[in-house]
Design goal:
Blueprint lengths: L3 E3 L5 E3 H6 L17 H12 L6 E5 L7 H13 L3 E5 L3 H7 L2 E6 L2 E6 L2 H15 L3 H7 L10 H29 L8 H39 L1
Parallel strand pairs: 3-4
Antiparallel strand pairs: 1-2, 5-6
Helix pairs in contact: 2-3, 5-8, 7-8
Length: 228
């Protein structure tokens, strides 16, 4: 029997071809779902979801618990989606890659920015800087002082931190590749320990990426404010 998937736009695809778009091999199609890795289960869920049609999609933190491959698939699908998409999230890279405009809700007001998170970041950091300084000091120095400039050490740090972020992201990708290809056959205590260790390494590596991103955003915001 030929198994056909009918997509939301009416397109018909063979199930092997459709699941192949989500990085599944023919050998994986007959495997029980329980034997799939966490990343594979997420990709399967994404494949099932993307079959649906809608005039508007609303995503709340869509990249949570997704590996890099699945996030890239989601980005590709959303870029090709013709209707409106609303994304609520904190994944800065994802917002930059997908969003054509960003709405920032602050003090019951909506600020609209063209583009993704990068366009909003300097404004957010400026707000945080204002909160950290007593209001009277802010009012007194608004016309007297210039924005703080980066120190020499901070400038040098800004030059290299992007490469560190790339290396940290590659480390995450390497660990996720090991998890995706993990052999779940004949699971025993030793293999379970190995799998748990890989998951912990993945969490640690993702934490390093997040920390580096926060440092980069802080330095970039100061640099942009001092140049404006």
């Amino acid at each position: 029997m030929i198994k056909i998937v009918i997509l939301g736009n009416g397109q018909r695809k063979h199930i092997h071809s459709y699941l192949g778009d989500f990085l599944f091999t023919s050998d994986q199609l007959n495997r029980p779902v329980s034997t799939l890795s966490g990343g594979e289960k997420n990709r399967l869920q994404l494949a099932m979801f993307m079959r649906q049609a809608a005039d508007l999609w609303v995503f709340d933190e869509p990249t949570n618990d997704l590996d890099i491959e699945t996030i890239e698939l989601l980005e590709k699908e959303l870029k090709e989606y013709d209707a409106a998409v609303i994304i609520i999230g904190h994944d800065r890279a994802f917002l930059d890659n997908i969003c054509k405009s960003t709405w920032l809700i602050h003090e019951k007001q909506v600020e609209i920015f063209e583009g993704g998170y990068t366009q909003v970041a300097p404004y957010l950091h400026a707000l945080e800087m204002e909160k950290s300084i007593p209001q009277k000091v802010v009012e007194k120095k608004q016309e007297q002082s210039k924005p703080r400039k980066l120190s020499y050490k901070e400038k040098e740090r800004l030059k290299v931190i992007e490469s560190e972020i790339e290396k940290a992201e590659m480390k995450v990708a390497e660990i996720e590749e090991l998890l995706v290809n993990f052999d779940f056959t004949d699971m025993n205590a030793e293999k379970q320990s190995e799998y748990d260790s890989l998951n912990q390494k993945k969490l640690d590596a993702e934490g390093k990426v997040e920390s580096l991103f926060e440092e980069w955003e802080k330095l970039s915001a100061i640099s942009k404010l001092s140049d404006s």
